[in-house]
Design brief:
Chain A is 72% helix and 0% strand. With 185 residues, chain A is mostly helical. The chains are: A mainly alpha (185), B alpha+beta (289).
């Protein structure tokens, strides 16, 4: 039930992410003119914090990997990405977060935002490398590189909110979680 | 038991990394080739995306209404109540008139295009930063819909069909770096090839293969040439925003802004053309993802 609710949250956030452009269009009329050019590159990745959270907090290795894969696959389907791109990237990021999670904590606002920022950058780099290696369009990786920073900043801004929701679901409403170091054998 | 669980978990992680990596190469080269499971999930996802779009549109309207109300309140400080009420009424009438005009133009466009068309509503766009793709849902079921068919709107070309899953269609936008279409300059008849740039900061395209001697200027309208049998001839694609003519070389460097405002795109028409005899242009214009 907990796993299903995490996947459903992931799908819900992906659908939300797909409609962010409407808000961006509306914000164009509200924000100062010099901010407008940066709005288009600033769609946050709302699912990434879930994967990072699972890497840092989920004690079961198998469950964490499967959940990360499902979230990546859902994004592959909903985002029209080449099938396998985000499935692979998210499992890799989850693994990376798990490795880092032994030393890092993600309990307060600043570490959460920093984690999300760093992992959003790594995600972008992974996608960039995979498309550079496998894709035939040489321009796309170069173009992707220009949005890495605004994308990471936007993801970091929304990450604390997503972390809080995931923590609630993950702990079944109690708010307490176990780290990977405790659960890893 | 503990050691078995550990090895089982390691195997799961390795498999979950290896399987998508294995499929990724083929999927990047030919995104339209999907498995039955992928296609089924896309079909299932379509109504979810539709509902999300409806909700998002509702929320946008509420927020917009709030912003407008704040504006009206500010106006009330300066103007009498009656004046404000009349202005609001005028805005409503103008909106209705604009919508009426837009629908009439859509109807006119549909009649102007010689091929059969099917209308669709945009439900999502630019889910990730990396691909400039819009998701649309057909208003009514259409037979024979397949990838690479042209998608147009009132203001011009929108893109081409990337994937089809039931009533849900993914559209590669003109501004995506994998997109390309042959164009002519409306004023001079000079030829060029429009390619998306994928620039996230603004919607823009590059016009390639415009010869140095060809006459082209800022503000010129670029229309589809009809070459390649994909897009009907004469549809607006973009308006030239920058021309850089060098002293030497074969081509000039030209940038343009699409005639379609993608941030406010709601309705599109998919032109059901037959592109099976145009495989060369297909490959040229499509690029790879």
């Amino acid at each position: 039930m907990r796993n299903l609710s995490l996947i459903l949250l992931g799908v819900l956030l992906t659908l939300t992410q797909a409609n962010v452009y409407r808000i961006m269009a509306m914000m164009e009329g509200v924000v100062p003119d010099f901010v407008v050019p940066y709005l288009h590159g600033a769609t946050p990745n709302l699912v990434l914090p879930i994967v990072v959270f699972l890497g840092v907090q989920e004690s079961s290795m198998g469950r964490g990997a499967i959940l990360a894969f499902c979230l990546g696959y859902a994004l592959d389907i909903l985002a029209d990405a080449p099938i396998g791109l985000f499935s692979f990237t998210y499992v890799a990021l989850w693994w990376l977060a798990r490795m880092a999670g032994v030393r890092l904590t993600a309990q307060t606002l600043l570490p959460r935002m920093s984690l999300a920022f760093a992992f959003a950058l790594v995600e972008g780099l992974l996608v960039l490398v995979l498309l550079a290696v496998f894709g035939a369009d040489t321009r796309r990786p170069v173009e992707i590189s220009t949005v890495l920073l605004p994308h990471a900043i936007a993801t970091a801004l929304f990450a604390p909110l997503v972390f809080r929701w995931v923590q609630r679901l993950h702990s079944g409403g109690t708010g307490s979680t176990r780290g990977p170091a405790e659960g890893a054998s | 038991m503990g050691s078995f669980k550990r090895y089982r978990d390691i195997v799961i992680v390795v498999v979950l990394l290896a399987v998508p990596f294995f499929f990724l190469r083929a999927s990047v080269r030919r995104p339209e080739d999907m498995s039955v499971v992928d296609r089924a999930l896309m079909t299932v996802a379509a109504p979810l995306e539709y509902v999300a779009a409806v909700l998002a549109r509702g929320v946008s309207r509420i927020v917009s209404s709030y912003v407008y109300l704040v504006d009206v309140k500010e106006d009330n400080n300066r103007l009498v109540f009656e004046n404000a009420r009349l202005r609001r009424r005028l805005r409503e009438l103008e909106a209705a008139e604009a919508e009426n005009r837009r629908l009439q133009r859509l109807l006119g466009l549909r009649e102007a295009i010689p091929d059969e068309t099917v209308s669709a509503v945009v439900v999502a766009k630019d889910t990730t930063e990396y691909f400039r793709v819009a998701h649309v849902v057909l208003d009514s079921p259409a037979a024979g819909l397949r990838d690479n068919m042209p998608v147009v709107s009132l203001d011009g070309t929108v893109g081409t069909v990337l994937r089809v899953a039931g009533d849900k269609v993914d559209v590669q936008l003109t501004v995506d770096s994998g997109f390309g279409v042959d164009v002519v300059v409306e004023r001079t008849g000079a030829r060029g090839f429009v390619r998306g740039t994928g620039n996230r900061k603004r919607y823009e395209v590059r016009v390639e293969y415009v010869q140095r001697t060809d006459e082209i200027d800022v503000g010129d309208l670029l229309l589809t040439s009809g070459v390649g049998c994909r897009f009907p001839k004469g549809l607006p694609v973009a308006r030239v925003t920058r021309v850089m003519r060098r002293e030497f070389g074969i081509y000039q460097e030209v940038e343009a802004e699409p005639t379609v405002d993608y941030s406010r795109l709601e309705e599109v028409l998919i032109v059901l053309t037959d592109t099976k005899d145009c495989s060369v242009t297909h490959e040229r214009g499509r690029g790879a993802r």
